[in-house]
Amino acid sequence: MLNLKDIKKDYVVGDSTVSALKGVSIDFRENEFVSILGPSGCGKTTLLNIIGGLDRYTSGDLNINGKSTKDFKDCDWDSYRNHSIGFVFQSYNLIPHQTVLSNVELALTLSGVSKSERRERAVKALEQVGLGDQLHKKPNQMSGGQMQRVAIARALVNEPDILLADEPTGALDTETSVQIMELLKSISKDKLIIMVTHNPELAMKYSSRIIKLLDGKVIDDSDPLDKNVVEPIKKPEKEPTKADKKAAKKERKKLKTSMSFLTALSLSRNNLMTKKARTLLTSFAGSIGIIGIALILSISNGVQLYIDQVQSDTLSSYPLQITKTTASIGEIMNTMAKNHEDSANHDKDKVYSQNAMGEMINTLMEETKVNNLEKFKKYLDDNSDLKDLTSDVQYTYATTLNVFTESDSGVMQVNPSTLLEDMGYMSSTQMEAMSMSGSMGGMMGMGTDVWSEMIDNEELIDKQYDVIAGRLPEKYNEVVLVVDKNNEINDYVLYSLGLLDPSSLNGIVRRAMAGEDISVDSEQHVYTYDELLDLKFKVVPTPDFYKKKDGVWEDMTGDESYMKKAVANGTEISVVGILRPDEDASSASISGAIGYRHDLMTYLIDEVDKSEIVKEQIANPDIDVFTGLKFKTDETVADTDSSSETVSDSTADTESKADKTADSSDTDKKAGLVAGDSSMEIPEGMTEEQYKALMEQSGASDTGELADMGMNAMGSMDMSAIQGGDMSSLTETQKKYIASLSDEQMELMKQMLKEQSDTNADQLANSGKYSTSNYDNNMKTLGYSVVEDPDSINIYPVDFASKEKIIDIIDDYNDSVGEEDKIEYTDYVGLMMSSITSIINAISYVLIAFVAISLVVSSIMIGIITYISVLERTKEIGILRSIGASKRDISRVFNAETVIVGFVAGALGIIISYLLTIPINMIIAHLTDVPIRASIPVSAAVILIAISVCLTLIAGLFPSRVAAKKDPVIALRTE
Question: CA 379, 381, 387, 389 torsion: positive or negative?
């Protein structure tokens, strides 16, 4: 089983060599109780350590079950100690911070035994030595005899073949020594026990074999193996096959010992818990660097969040704007400056004029460009990256949002607002320019309109505003009212919305400038939320302002009764919510007092597209529907010979008069039939039977009276109103007359009106005159737009970095299209300090770099503390090695300790930092009005803890390597 052949062991001490063993050869039986006696220094313990695999022999050979150990590697010796050897030491060598049960389980842990089986076998071993009721005690809570029993249980738990006992009774009293020896003797029935002792009496009494050593040699063996027994000649071993090698390798791998990292953590945790104060102080020292970095990051994060909010809020008010017609102000200024420098090339002996106005107009014309937004919109819609870079992409159209309110006194236009014009503050042209400036993101001041489209980003609106009443709009006909941070509404808005009487301000500016005494309502008005949520408005498409008369469309905005009806038929808009800017919001995306959804504009565009006047203008692109005249074209000859023009006009007049006479005759006949005049001739195209039937239906028995009433009624009747079905403008006599007409007569009347309208339109179109407008202007006047072809595009970047990426996207588009399709845009925030983020980051990095020095220093300190721990736990290292722990396992134990310390340091640093952010935020709030909230991002906290663990782990690598390289024999001797 176990065979020592000429074992020698030499120690080098300085320049000399000491021989501890001098050729020891011993054969041991499988089960016997062997005692090794000899004086101190004779090599007893050295021999025991070599047998146990703790020490290496210098020469000779140690055979285990017939297998030489000459080629054993460290892992083979570790496996041998763990599976074949059990150690019992004089000083017990229990790990003090582990319980009795954990001490016994440790060897099984290295063997890879499952937790349940490990516990079962450990309890059984402790019961075998009489300690089944002492499982959870610590070694320092037990007597010497009990501790030695625990050591024996630990040696037996892995069911080893050999039990090595080094002075097992040396520290025990006589009675306890006897108990331990009896226990060992009972064990020797099944196992080989080799005991080193100085007590010959105990050896003689309990041992079955006594070997005496002196000066490193065996001088006596009481029961050696019989040398006269001839061992059978072994057959030469066959060369192992690949399968044999594979099986052997698998078996070695199975027997290989390994401590799990969780076990290492458990050992280290228990050790650290025995030194709580030192562990806590060490962790706190290690956390100082973490605290410094965490506080810098928290303040930096708070500033960055504030900057991000400012960027988001600012960019929600100042987007990248791309208009259909645009001019680069920078290019215009550069061109004008260059032209001025070029023109200044003359002598200075006289005064010369400077063509500033001409240059400005020429430059403006040269630099003004029409963008193809239809193509660019399609490009943006197809770009998948744009969504992550923008808060919204808003498409605006030339369609006017006409909003009115109804009251007992009539209707009032709310949007576009005419309040400033009514006050006499500015002209309609100035009003239009002011309104345009208001649509440019507020860069040039507030516009005159109080209605503005909301950004289509509910998340951003939630950040910028608090809903103080109602809710956000969900449908196209729902809007919100926006108050300021003090829950106040500007009186300009109140007058514009009709909440205050705007008529009281009519002409007030002119009267004030004329020196009249004027008074303005300065009372503070109060409105409940419910009152404001009850507000209703009407949206009227622009085409509804026009009515067809005599073949052309007439603007009816000056007709009060018509406008009442048009407004009454408009789309009702309800205020469903009241918003107030958030206290921390630096800017707001809704520029007006009323915010409406984008789908209100798309609804309006659709309504305009379906109107009759728009359909007629599209169907007749060369005829002005407002005047009936033709539009001028490039082929139109502006100036013609005056004589030919006169002839042409005379001929046209003659033909026109003839046509009018013929048309008038036929119309009069039809009018007479409508009026029931039986004396009228039968009109062309009507048979006599049709004529008679028509006269019978009209009551020809009293034709004279009816004819008089009909002709009088038709004389002042609004024929186009009848054609459109509008009877509100008719007198009672006219209504009575209309009621008396049969269906056939009504159809005849409508036919007559249509013919008259077509005749008038034809006459106007062929009059030789031309409209002063053009097709595009008319369509713009009517508010006609195509959803695919916006009038402008507002791109709202998430932040400045996103804005730069969006500019890159636009540049990529410009590179991919021809010169005529290139896009020019206005970047209103291009001159703002977009480098603020970079500055903040740079400052943060510098501060972190300084604080990182303390983090490195604290990590080095933790490395030193770990090294001290190695020195303190040297004996534990020896114990672990004796039960089969490898060098890697020892290294893992101390790495686990540094991981624990690093984690505690990192977690402690984050907790302290979180607590410190409370007073820091209070100080910031007290000293500044800037809403900066220092906070540590969760990701940063996790990363900092990970950094702390990594740094302490790195710092502990050297001490852990030192621990792994310690000689287990020397380690076991350490006290």
Answer: positive
Per DSSP (E only), the strands in 169-237 are: 192-196, 209-214, 217-221
Q: Which residues pair with 392 in a beta bridge?
A: 796
CA distances from 116 to 105, 112, 121, 259, 312 (A): 11, 12, 9, 17, 59
For the segment 897-924, the average pLDDT, to the nearest whole number, is 90
DSSP 936: -
d(C-alpha 527, C-alpha 801), whole Å: 43
Name, in order, each residue with C-beta under 8 angstroms of 550's C-beta and a sequence gap of 6 or more. Answer: 720, 756, 757, 760
**Pairing mode, strands 192-196 and 32-37:** parallel
Q: In what order do the strands lie in the sheet with 59-64?
A: 16-28, 2-13, 59-64, 67-68
User: Which of 211, 225, 183 has the alpha carbon at shortest distance from 47?
Assistant: 211
8 A C-beta contact, residue 117 and residue 194: no
Length of the chain, please? 975
* Alpha-carbon gap, residue 568 to 410, rounded angstroms: 11
Cα–Cα nearest to 790, from 454, 400, 398: 398
Residues 6+ positions from 259 with CB-CB distance below 8 Å: 109, 110, 885, 886, 889, 892, 893
Which pLDDT score, from 0 to 100, does residue 404 have?
93
669 pLDDT above the threshold of 60: no
Q: List CB contacts of 834: < 8 A, sequence separation 6 or more.
A: 800, 803, 804
3-state secondary structure of 558: coil
Rounded distance between C-alpha atoms, residue 264 and residue 899, angstroms: 11
Buried-state track 281-299, b at ≥16 Cβ within 10 A, e below 16: ebbbbbbbbbbbbbbbbbb
Read off the tokens for 528.
């409940």
CB 541 within 8 A of CB 609: no
Beta bridge partners of 322: 793
The arithmetic mean of pLDDT across residues 858-878, rounded, is 84
Nearest to 394 by CA among 686, 601, 229: 601
| CA dist., res. 773 & res. 752, Å (int) | 30
Whether 677 contacts 703, CB under 8 Å: yes
Pairing verdict, β 546-549 and 552-555? antiparallel
Which three-class secondary structure state does DSSP give residue 1? Answer: coil
Smallest CA-to-CA distance from 551 within 604, 493, 605, 620 is with 620
Q: Is 410 left (phi over 0), alpha (psi -120 to 50) or beta?
A: left
CB 883 within 8 A of CB 154: yes
At 516-532, the pLDDT tens digits run 887 777 788 999 999 99
- How far is the C-alpha of 671 from the C-alpha of 685, rounded, in Å? 15
Cα separation, 574 vs 522, whole angstroms: 28
Burial group, residue 587, by CB count within 10 angstroms (0-12, 13-18, 19+)? middle
Query: What's the CA gap between 2 and 26, in Å, rounded?
Result: 8
Candidate from 255-259, 538-542, 625-629 with smallest mean pLDDT: 255-259
Query: Would the pLDDT of 830 be above 60?
Result: no
* CB atoms closer than 10 angstroms to residue 749: 22
> How many other CB atoms sit within 10 Å of the CB of residue 311?
24
What single letter denotes the amino acid at residue 445?
G
Helix axes 874-882, 887-927, angle to 10 degrees: 140
Task: For residue 249, give the 3-state DSSP assignment.
Answer: helix
CB-count exposure of residue 767 (10 Å: 0-12, 13-18, 19+): middle
Omega cis (within 30) before 416: yes
Measured between alpha carbons, how far is 646 from 147 in angstroms, rounded to an integer?
137
Stronger pLDDT, 826 or 668, i.e. the higher one: 826
The band of 249, judged by pLDDT with boundaries at 50, 70 and 90, is low
Q: CB–CB of 482/593 below 8 Å?
A: yes
Three-state secondary-structure class, residue 56: coil
- State how far the Cα of 756 lies from the Cα of 549, in Å rounded to an integer: 10
